[in-house]
Specification:
Elements (H helix, E strand, L loop, with lengths): L2 E6 L3 H13 L3 E7 L6 H8 L3 E3 L2 H7 L8 E4 L3 H13 L3 E4 L11 H4 L8 E3 L3 H14 L4 E11 L5 H5 L1 H14 L6 E8 L7 E9 L4 H16 L5 E3 L4 E5 L15 E10 L11 H20 L2 H5 L2
Parallel strand pairs: 1-2, 1-4, 2-3, 4-5, 5-6, 7-8
Antiparallel strand pairs: 7-9, 9-12, 10-12, 11-12
């Protein structure tokens, strides 16, 4: 029996979530699509596919007969709206998967720490940059302590909606914190670049890790193994070029904060993420990795056992 879910937010991310679940998920069933604009394309598509819909926000969801049986709610609205949505949904004992920058709950990156949050009622999917790069930092950390990790995410300007543009600072701060908290780096830094190139480029990510000395081949193997794990739910996630591991005899030459004359290894990983094209264009890998990670999380939670039983026992 499939676990019933609702989607808050009928924009690009919410619509892509719905279509991915309808097309591919054997564990989830979309019972409701919720928006605030009655003319939104997401609500129109929901109606086309026979999914119950409302344009009255979370209050409209509460009035829907389907609400009682819904166990998981994806929130693809905004950080501001999520605080209100969380209060309402927690009072009704619903599992929440947050795709906004609100980060009320802990950061979750499926291949790194999903088991740590199996009983958490609200989990946050970090950012697209976080989903793409934190697994790499964690892979290096599995082999050697990481003193500093820096990531640069470059996305097509056309794939950055008003929410992303309004929350650039939140993106960099949230991603940097996730590099530290989930990835395990002592210090993290994140940079996002919106590239206006035509035709639009697909998402590209650069990850630099400064770590203690270790076997370079073991580091590369750990990174490659992690990439294959991410590819199971994001097929367009791949290496752009060979992993580079080089010796650093004096980190002060790199002009990085608080590292002094640290010696060790610098691991450089270059990735790209191509979207599946279910609803969003293939260059919007930044949005695709967020929705794919959220669905992977929901399926894992659903298959573990009843979300309500697990979270509110």
């Amino acid at each position: 029996m499939r676990t019933k879910v609702a989607i808050l937010g009928s924009g690009n991310i919410g619509t892509d979530l719905m279509l991915k679940i309808l097309r591919n998920s054997q564990a989830l069933e979309v019972s409701a699509m919720v928006g605030i604009d009655p003319q939104s394309e997401g609500l129109a598509r929901a109606e086309k596919f026979g999914v119950a819909k409302t344009h009255d926000g979370v209050e409209g969801l509460l009035r829907m007969p389907q609400f009682r049986d819904i166990e998981i709610v994806f929130d693809a609205t905004s950080a501001g709206a999520h605080f209100r949505n969380n209060d309402v949904l927690q009072s009704h004992k619903k599992q929440i998967i947050d795709l906004t920058p609100a980060a009320i709950g802990p950061y979750l990156v499926p291949v790194v720490n999903i088991d740590s949050h199996i009983a958490t009622p609200n989990v946050n999917m970090v950012t697209c940059g976080g989903q793409a790069t934190v697994p790499i930092v964690a892979a290096v950390r599995q082999v050697a302590p990481v003193h500093y990790a820096e990531i640069i995410s470059t996305i097509a300007s056309k794939s950055a909606g008003p929410g992303t543009r309004a929350n650039i600072d939140e993106f960099t701060q949230t991603t940097a914190r996730a590099i530290e908290i989930v990835g395990g780096a002592a210090k993290g830094k994140a940079i996002i670049i919106l590239n206006p190139a035509e035709p639009p480029i697909i998402m590209r990510n650069t990850v630099f890790c400064l770590s203690d000395y270790a076997d370079a081949a073991v580091i590369a193997k750990s990174v490659e193994s992690t990439i294959e794990k991410v590819r199971r739910y994001v097929p367009g996630y791949r290496l752009k070029q060979e992993i580079q591991v080089e010796e650093i005899k004096d980190a002060s030459a790199l002009r990085l904060p608080d590292l002094g004359r640290l010696t060790g290894l610098k691991t450089s990983v270059f990735l790209e993420v191509e979207g599946a094209g279910h609803y969003l264009p293939s260059y919007a890998g930044n949005l695709d990795i967020m929705t794919s990670a959220a669905i992977q999380t929901a399926e894992y939670l659903a298959q573990s056992r009843s979300c309500k039983e697990r979270v509110y026992k």
